[in-house]
Amino acid sequence: MNDLTDTQLIALAARQDAAFEVLVRRHAPRVHALASHMVGAGSADDVVQEVFLSVHRHLRSFRGDAQFTTWLHRVALNACYGLLRRRQPDALSDVPEPSSPLDPVGTSETLQLRERLAWALAQLPHDQREAVTLRELSGLEYAAIAEITGVEVGTVKSRIARGRSALRDLLSARGVTVGST
Question: Against a cut of 0.70, is the pTM above it?
Answer without folding.
Answer: no
